[in-house]
Recover the amino acids of this structure.
């Protein structure tokens, strides 16, 4: 084939995706037409042509993982993100807020779930106690800097779950990611903050295999680094030495920033 008739990189990718059509169709849920998935994927690559410079296996593998999770890489449900590695640039499929919310809503356990970022000019009230409540009135105009992020979920039996995280809380989670200073955390901070609070509240919600799979895919894409156990000092002294507080081992959940304290039986071991 001469240079004048050689396929452009995007045309070659279109041909490759078409060849993978039977594989995509087998992986996708019935409600997502394979033609729509391929068309949206190709559009995502056209809008970010740098993806064609990444490892081809990682790019095609990311497309297949998105199909298996039933998410379209349209930037709302999922995205194809470039990560720099020692071996060269690679593509990683990353579930986005819309995709995670979609899977949680489709699990059949919830009546509704939402997550929002709070800015310094917004009106925001968060009340704990017997009657927990969140009131948020966004400012219409330039809203200033982000100060918090929250999620609210309602189950079909009427239970309401609320989670609020400060920007400092979100930044602790960001610091546990290998891509803390690049990629999605620098491009879509608001999106990543909303995902962070959704991940935290999801630990308290009824679970499903589909939701767990998407959260695991997000964990892999975010490149979270598991923190080493840390020493914490409880308020009460130890039984063996009443005058000296005991030192317990606790771990930080890299995905949510929460500290998991060991039970008393673990401390005594």
């Amino acid at each position: 084939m001469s240079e004048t008739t050689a396929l452009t990189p995007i045309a070659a990718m279109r041909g490759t995706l078409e060849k993978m059509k039977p594989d995509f169709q087998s992986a996708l849920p019935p409600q997502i037409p394979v033609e729509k998935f391929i068309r949206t994927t190709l559009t995502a690559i056209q809008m970010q042509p740098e993806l064609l410079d990444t490892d081809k296996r990682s790019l095609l593998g990311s497309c297949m993982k998105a199909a298996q999770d039933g998410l379209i890489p349209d930037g709302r449900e999922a995205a194809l993100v470039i990560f720099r590695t020692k071996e060269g640039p690679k593509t990683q499929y990353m579930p986005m807020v819309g995709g995670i919310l979609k899977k949680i809503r489709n699990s059949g356990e919830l009546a509704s779930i939402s997550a929002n970022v709070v800015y310094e000019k917004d009106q925001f009230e968060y009340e704990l106690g017997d009657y927990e409540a969140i009131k948020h009135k966004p400012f219409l105009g330039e809203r200033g800097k982000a100060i918090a992020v929250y999620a609210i979920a309602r189950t079909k039996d009427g239970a309401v779950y609320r989670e609020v995280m400060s920007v400092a809380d979100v930044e602790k989670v960001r610091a546990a990611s290998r891509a803390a200073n690049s990629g999605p955390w620098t491009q879509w901070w608001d999106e990543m903050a909303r995902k962070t609070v959704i991940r935290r509240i999801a630990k308290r919600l009824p679970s499903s295999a589909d939701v767990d799979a998407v959260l695991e895919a997000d964990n892999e894409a975010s490149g979270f680094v598991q923190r080493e156990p840390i020493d914490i000092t409880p308020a009460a002294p130890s039984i063996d030495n009443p005058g000296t507080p005991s030192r317990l081992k606790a771990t930080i959940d890299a995905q949510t920033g929460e500290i998991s304290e060991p039970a008393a039986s673990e401390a005594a071991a």
